[in-house]
Design goal:
heterodimer; A: alpha/beta; Aconitase, domain 3; Aconitase, Domain 2; 5-stranded parallel sheet; 19 strands; 33% helix; B: 192 residues; Aconitase, domain 4; 7-stranded mixed sheet; 8 helices
Chain lengths: 466, 192
């Protein structure tokens, strides 16, 4: 057998029926994560056809996208203000109960952003196929799982059959060697990769991130990298499981235990791409050349170093993008004023991200012109951050400390940036209106976000870390 | 799903590249629990002003938009969020086909499940379409051919199963359910 990639092994072991010229493969799905926004219409289809959720043991639901981040609404002391969001939350509560699906609901201490709780619980594991009606499902690929976002019709397919019809994608190796410099993190690395690949450079491909710089990343950093694979057009990003992966998973509530753990380890150790395995495409990067990055435009590929300048010229889309952002060609990014700083989302709302933010904020204050929101990725992250006193650092600095959820990443729950205002956000999309109609989003790392909050201007975090 | 065989319309052209699904339908419209009626939210932030009034200069608000079913869009249409609300909104508005040089993976998959035909064409054909808004075109799913004025025809790639489903109005769920014995056999062999 020729040398195989990580992706090929996971794919092959999940083919119920291999693809032919006439039909796609039937791919078995080990884990289906679901949330309130992309599931209601799928449950409706099941009802119309009289179908059950076939494998409730492989299905896990939570509430994250449209949930409030203030305590009183979240815990039911007052009704959820946004009526449509309340209905959606109630719909998932009803559907989960009716179909026997486990729901980590509003009051659960395990609730959180779907891509944060999967790893936290240990249900995200190497070699699994994982899907969710959410494009950032690519996050789970950090564990060597094949994880990708699907639409609501496919959510229904998985609920009814535990399978999807899929054509086998191509493979793209992103090889990153060298070491990230101090003050430069996983978010900067993935923004730099997207800047190189472009926002459709990964279309039709599964990315495997590999090389010494990737191996050196923690699990939380690998999740940040894999999370944004979709921003380069790739449905999935993967990292080979290794000791870092196993150490993260061991002892997690739903990770295998005892003999099952040993058996799992043996399987997982056989997953990495074999020497000589070939990829359809290869891209190489030197991590040591990556600088703190920030976006200047309206897609994640429009990105430069924080110390850099907006390109001097471009096409009509470039012009439209700058007009939306209120920027001029050739301007420096550093020093631009900031109105809102959002620390949160499935990209950067894990404990390590919050520690980075606290590193900058400790003993400092958020500039009086800035509203800063810190939204932990899960209730567990919230508890852990509070146990370390991080929340006190944020509060002392003048930032808001909230309950977990997607929040201002997409503003579905009413946490929005006002029209025309500038936001430095640790989230994943700077599309027009993403954080609210007319909102102007600049994507950056937790360090850069925190540094910019302190000065009220786009700031290279290395200036405050010296 | 309704059968789709040919679609003939004058084109509407939105030449911007990388039109993401947040533009096609902004997140605040995703709190719905049904799939109907989303056409009014299609391109909402481009289509309406702050008071909710239609912007007269936006393409979909112009008189020529009425009744057109083919959208020609810039490269990488439908990138970003996996929301199926995007094709639901496009179909509810009346679109039946989207033509571009590149269409994002998840959007394409979602489009096909809703009878919205993704048509990928070469750069030259695309440039011609962009330069000729309102051109009468026909998307022939049976032959995988896009017909342009002057008896010009260009073929487009369409995965054979997707083509079969469009032509016969077959939905994939029925197909998957018919393969349940194979799925059960896979599970007996010991799913990971």
């Amino acid at each position: 057998m020729p040398a195989r990639t990580l992706f090929e092994k996971v794919w092959a072991s999940h083919e119920v029926v291999a693809e032919t010229a006439d039909t796609p493969a039937i791919l078995y799905i080990d884990l289906h994560l679901t949330h309130e926004v992309t599931s209601p219409q799928a449950f409706t289809v099941l009802r119309e056809r009289g179908l059950p959720v076939r494998r409730t043991d492989r299905t896990l639901a939570t509430l994250d996208h449209s949930t409030p981040t203030d305590r009183a609404q979240l815990f039911g002391e007052v009704p959820i203000r946004l009526e449509s969001a309340r209905h959606q939350v109630e719909a998932l509560e009803r559907n989960a109960a009716a179909f026997g699906v486990e729901l980590l609901g509003l009051k659960s201490d395990r609730r959180g952003i779907v891509h944060i709780i999967g790893p936290e619980l240990g249900v995200t594991q190497p070699g699994k196929t994982i899907v969710c009606g959410d494009s950032h499902t690519s996050t789970h690929g950090a564990f060597g799982a094949l994880a990708f976002g699907i639409g609501t019709t496919e959510v229904g397919h998985v609920m009814a059959t535990q399978c999807l019809l899929q054509r086998k994608p191509k493979t793209l190796a992103v090889e990153v060697d060298g070491r990230l410099a101090p003050g430069v993190g996983a978010k900067d690395l993935i923004l730099a990769i997207i800047g190189r690949l472009g926002v459709s450079g990964g279309t039709g491909h599964v990315i495997e991130y590999r090389g010494s710089a990737i191996e050196a990343l923690s699990m939380e950093e690998r999740m940040t990298v894999c999370n944004m694979s979709i921003e380069a057009g790739a449905r999935a990003g993967m990292v080979a499981p290794d000791q870092t992966t196993f150490d993260y998973l061991q002892g997690r509530p739903r990770a295998p235990q005892g003999d099952a753990w040993e058996a799992a380890l043996e399987n997982w150790r056989a997953l990495p791409s074999e020497p000589g395995a070939s990829f359809d495409r290869v891209m190489q990067m030197d991590a040591s050349e990556v600088l703190p990055m920030i976006t200047w435009g309206t897609n994640p590929g429009m990105v430069v170093p924080v110390t850099g300048t907006i390109p001097a010229s471009g096409d009509a889309v470039f012009q439209k993008s700058l007009q939306y952002m209120g920027f001029e060609p050739g301007q420096s990014m550093a020093g631009k004023p900031v109105d809102v700083v959002f620390v949160g989302s499935c990209t950067n709302a894990r404990l390590s991200d919050l520690r980075e933010v606290a590193r900058v904020l400790r003993g400092r204050r958020v500039d009086k012109s800035v509203r800063m929101l810190v939204v932990p990725g899960s209730q567990q992250v919230k508890r852990e951050a509070e146990a370390e006193g991080l929340h006190q650092v944020f509060l002392d600095a003048g930032a808001e400390w909230r309950e977990s959820g997607c929040s201002m990443c997409l503003g579905m729950n009413g946490d929005t940036v006002a029209s025309g205002r500038y936001s430095v956000s640790t989230s994943n999309r700077n599309f027009e209106g993403r954080q609210g109609t007319g909102a102007r989003t600049m994507l950056a790392s937790p360090l850069t976000a925190a540094a910019s909050a302190v000065t009220g201007r786009i700031t290279d975090p290395r200036e405050l870390l010296a | 799903m309704e059968k789709v065989s040919t679609i003939t319309s004058r084109s509407l052209v939105m030449s911007s590249t990388n039109i993401d699904t947040d533009q096609i339908i902004p997140a605040r419209f995703l709190t719905t629990t049904t799939r109907e009626g989303l056409g009014k939210a299609l391109f909402a932030d481009w289509r309406y002003d702050a008071e909710g009034q239609p912007r007269p200069d936006f393409l979909l608000n112009t008189p020529e938009a009425v009744g057109r079913t083919v959208l020609v869009a810039g490269r990488n249409f439908g990138c970003g969020s996996s929301r199926e609300h995007a094709p639901w909104a496009l179909v509810d508005f009346g679109f039946r086909a989207v033509i571009s040089t590149e269409i994002a993976d998840i959007f394409r998959s979602n489009a096909l499940k809703n009878g919205l035909v993704p048509v990928i064409v070469d750069e030259d054909t695309h440039a011609w379409l962009i330069a000729h808004p309102g051109a009468e075109v026909t998307v022939d799913v049976e032959r995988c051919v896009l017909s342009l004025p002057g008896n010009r025809e260009v073929s487009f790639p369409l995965e054979s199963f997707a083509r079969y489903c469009l032509l016969n109005g077959v939905d994939e769920l029925g197909f998957l359910l018919s393969r349940m014995p194979a799925i059960e056999e896979y599970e007996r062999r010991g799913a990971k």
